[in-house]
Amino acid sequence: MDFSDTIGVSAAGMRAQTARLRIAAENLANAETTGSSPGADPYRRKTVTFRETLDRASGVSSVEVRSVGEDQSDFQMRYDPAHPAANEQGYVKMPNVSSIVEIMDSHDAQHSYEANLNTMQVTRSMLSRAINLMKD
Asked: In the chain, at which end, N or C, are there fewer CB atoms within 10 A of the end residue's CB?
């Protein structure tokens, strides 16, 4: 693996973690978004799935977003008979978003992003030193 491969792998990792952060932020922003009519479904939590990719020419594996899907877990029910989306019994379907899960996922994605950024910075520094050695 050469310097450009290392930088490419780090960049791919950063793109993947950026997508993960964006999805977590969207989920957090919609954690209270209900349907607008009685019995209507609220916002459904989104998930991101990754896949490994292989550059056959260099033999280097990397990561990319495979898909953005929806979490099919059950909605929570909250008793609020005055809400416009309340059903006949007074319950409102609430999104299947857990703020704690989204915050933890955001922190994990942030740390992974930082690790990839660190790798890229170290690689750039090594490349710069190698160029400087060739000049001397």
From this structure: C
Token pair listed for 87: 């059903």
Q: Token pair of 32, please?
A: 């209270």
Using CA atoms, how far residue 41 sits from 76, 77, 115, in Å, is 11, 11, 38
Tokens of 44: 């459904």
**130: pLDDT confidence band, cut at 50, 70 and 90?**
confident
Which of the pair, 135 or 20, is modelled with greater confidence? 20
Using alpha carbons, select from 123, 10, 118 the residue that is nearest to residue 63. 10
* pLDDT of 1: 57
Q: Distance between CA atoms of 42 and 86, rounded to whole angstroms?
A: 11
Predicted TM-score of the model (pTM): 0.84
48, 44, 49: which is closest to 30 by C-alpha? 44
Average pLDDT over residues 11-26: 96
| Beta carbons of 109 and 21 less than 8 angstroms apart | yes
Helix (H, G, I), strand (E, B) or coil at 116: helix
